[in-house]
Design a protein that fits this description.
Helix content: 10-25%
Number of strands: 14
CATH class of the largest domain: Mainly Beta
Shape: elongated
CATH topology of the largest domain: OB fold (Dihydrolipoamide Acetyltransferase, E2P)
Radius of gyration: 20 Å
Strand content: over 45%
Distance between the termini: 40 Å
Largest sheet: 8 strands, mixed
Order of helices and strands: HEEEEEEEEEHHEEEEE
Number of helices: 3
CATH architecture of the largest domain: Beta Barrel
Amino acid sequence: MRAIYNQQLLMKPIIFLLLISLTSCFRSRDAQMKLVEGSASQHKVEVNEVIQSTKYTYLKVSEDQIQKWLAVAKQEVKVGETYYFDKALQMNNFYSKELDKTFDVIYFINEINSKIEPGTIIARPEAHSGKIQSSQKEIKIVKTEGELTIADLFKNRLKYAGTKVRIKGLVGKVNKAVMGKNWIHLQDGTNFSGNFDLTITSQDMANTDEIATFEGLISLNKNFGSGYFYELIMEDAIKIDTK
């Protein structure tokens, strides 16, 4: 990514928090919110319909032949044009008092743009595989009795499916409080058929570059919706204090 684009990404969390606060001004009927966490990749949509309100522009769009509603701070958007966005706040049963309309599902986004940085990967629902796009770290983790390697876990996934296992590794990435969970990526220097990164969901927290041990339930072919599909994931893990 170019430097200017990186600066824009740094501003997005601030803008996104402002957007969330604005949504609280609207009345909803049993509204439920969920953060749809993305990466630097973007979604590509075509605008089919535009509804303008005092503060928001509501957009009916198509993405991969699937129609959905988006809402963004009021701006000029043209029907038939292609736009891009990344993070979104999903709201179910959202009621707009001004429009007197209930949206079964709508995605509030911090911004859209009609241009995309050359070389940026376009996110597709079927493209999420539960693997982060990173290189394998050259590390060596000393295991204790009862701790699996990531290679062994992926190699014998059917054996460990539905069971609790313990893994020690280096924390490479952490996404906090997404869908009510912390999402932690762990590596231990082992690799099976290109699988070297284990995704973990937990209420506990770990820091990037920390050596941590987690114990949790292994699930296969887990679909969290919004295009996020994991062939293998450790869920509801507990961080083990090995000191």
